[in-house]
């Protein structure tokens, strides 16, 4: 899955997770607190502090380990797709 550049609301900014972040991954019917989603995946608190989040405008469009946001996901007929690929490991 990737992001459709036509559906993005501004420049892309990569940052760490912040308390209060909300996200609606593709396939989900509602926006949820990212804290809850990370807890469900059993991501330790020590790792959450540096968990990567990509936002466009004021909306989170991608979070490591989750599908892209419903609002920004590329469809099958998208002419261009932004693919996010992580290389290497994060330091503890």
Please characterize this protein's 3D structure.
- This protein has 92 residues and is an alpha+beta fold.
- The longest helix has 7 residues, at 34-40.
- It is globular and about 40 Å long.
- The N and C termini lie far apart (27 Å).
- The protein has 2 helices and 5 strands.
- The strands form 2 sheets. A 3-stranded antiparallel β-sheet has the order 1-4-5, with no helix packed on it. The chain has a two-stranded antiparallel ribbon with strand order 2-3.
Search tags:
92 residues, alpha+beta, two-stranded antiparallel sheet
Class computed from helices, strands and strand pairing: alpha+beta
Strand content: 15-25%
- Series of H and E elements: EEEHHEE
- Counting DSSP E segments of at least 2 residues, the number of strands comes to 5
Biggest sheet architecture: 3 strands, antiparallel
Report how far the terminal alpha carbons are from each other: 27 Å
User: Would you tell me the overall average pLDDT?
Assistant: 91
The low-confidence runs, each spanning 5 or more residues with pLDDT under 50, are: none
Estimate the helix proportion, in percent: 10-25%
- Estimate the global geometry from the Cα principal axes: globular
Our Rg estimate from Cα atoms comes to: 13 Å
Count of individual helical segments: 2
Order of strands, widest sheet: 1-4-5
